[in-house]
Specification:
mainly beta
């Protein structure tokens, strides 16, 4: 049973179909790294909008309580933070998703104070206790509080606990990488008082005090500052995993151009690390926002799984389109091809014949 890194085959898997308006003619000197080009998913949300962000996924070799894939996300129609409450979905293939039978979303209730809001869910599996673990972030006027909830069946979730908190927007987008042979690590983005309008951010790291890999009943030591930076960009949302077959931590990073109008035109980047502190971040995006109509405004917090047998990187993407709507999508890339392209400084997706323009800035897209 795998809680983070999946083992799967392509037999019987159907690829999602991209909308015609998002399809463009491409040519690449190195050939496309994508096995399945980024394409939209249909996502049920408790508010009925179908607009969602912040995907994360746990995969199992065999069904766990009826499903091989368990996912989290938050609805975000019209960038409405009041609806940004972590929800749970399940899937047989990771692409066609539905609400589990017997579950009512959201699983994390809205804050009592309507001026506060939830955000940034992170979903993991703790094999030592056979339970799903959901981290998220409560945003209040002067604090970010990291919350954690657990479930032994994916349906019933415990009341949240608060492992720690930080001042202002100093704990954006928490992400945890557990491993069977050592302490889990947690990273998050310190965006200071300015949050979405920060001109620079730092990626912080905490280490679990429990050396067996537990992520719930542990204290989080630290924090310490990592050296993760992307020249010319401000790191905003992150997703990390430990990849046993490579003995590395990997991270997908949503980042926006520095000296611009805040976090409104994010691209998606990739980074690697052997220790979680020192990172090799590639300056060329994995996904550029302007290459597709449904990502035209921003490629936001996204998640991934790696299958060493097929050398495939599977990505669950969230983005805001040229119509201002938030959506989730899915893609598969050959990791070796992707890495060769990034290390050569080449565009992963060659310049599209159509460049999609971001809409006017809307309220939202803040922490």
């Amino acid at each position: 049973m795998l809680g983070l890194v999946m083992s799967c085959t392509d037999a019987g898997e159907s690829a999602p179909t991209a909308p015609a308006s998002a399809t463009t003619t491409r040519a690449s000197a190195l050939g496309s790294a994508f096995v399945v080009e980024p394409a939209l998913m249909t996502v049920p949300t408790y508010d009925g909008s179908g607009q969602a962000v912040h995907p994360d996924v746990v995969a199992f070799d065999t069904p766990w309580h009826g499903a091989r894939y368990w996912l989290t996300m938050t609805p975000y129609p019209k960038s409405d933070q009041k609806l940004e409450n972590p929800s749970i979905l399940e899937s047989d293939d990771g692409v066609t998703v539905e609400v589990p039978s017997g579950l009512k979303n959201p699983v994390i209730a809205p804050p009592r104070n309507s001026k506060n809001y939830n955000s940034d869910p992170e979903l993991l599996y703790e094999p030592q206790t056979d339970r799903l673990v959901l981290f998220d972030r409560l945003v209040e006027k002067k604090t970010n509080t990291i919350h954690v909830s657990t479930s032994r069946d994916g349906i019933t979730w415990t009341p949240t606990r608060a492992p720690f908190w930080e001042h202002y927007h100093q704990a954006v987008s928490p992400t945890v990488a557990s491993r069977p042979d050592g302490a889990a690590l947690m990273w998050y983005v310190n965006a200071g008082k300015k949050g979405c309008m920060a001109s620079s951010t730092d990626v912080m790291m905490r280490t679990a005090s429990d050396k067996s890999g537990l992520i719930v009943d542990t204290r989080w030591m630290g924090p310490s500052r990592t050296d993760l930076k992307i020249p010319g960009y401000v790191i905003w949302h992150i997703k990390a995993r430990w990849i046993p077959s490579k003995a590395e931590y990997w991270m997908l990073i949503s980042a926006f151009p520095a000296n611009k109008n805040g976090c409104h035109t994010d691209d998606l980047f990739f980074a690697r690390s052997s220790d979680g502190v020192h990172w090799n971040a590639y300056p060329e995006p994995v996904l550029r926002h302007e290459d597709r109509n449904w990502t035209a405004a921003a490629v936001y917090r996204s998640s991934f799984l790696y299958d060493a047998d097929s050398d495939e990187l599977r990505m669950w993407i969230s983005a805001r389109g040229d119509d201002g709507a938030w959506r989730m999508g899915y893609a598969r890339a050959r990791y070796t091809s992707l890495l060769v392209t990034l290390e050569a400084g080449q565009r992963v997706s060659s310049q599209a014949t159509t460049v999609f323009r971001a809409p006017a800035v809307l309220r939202g897209e803040e922490p």
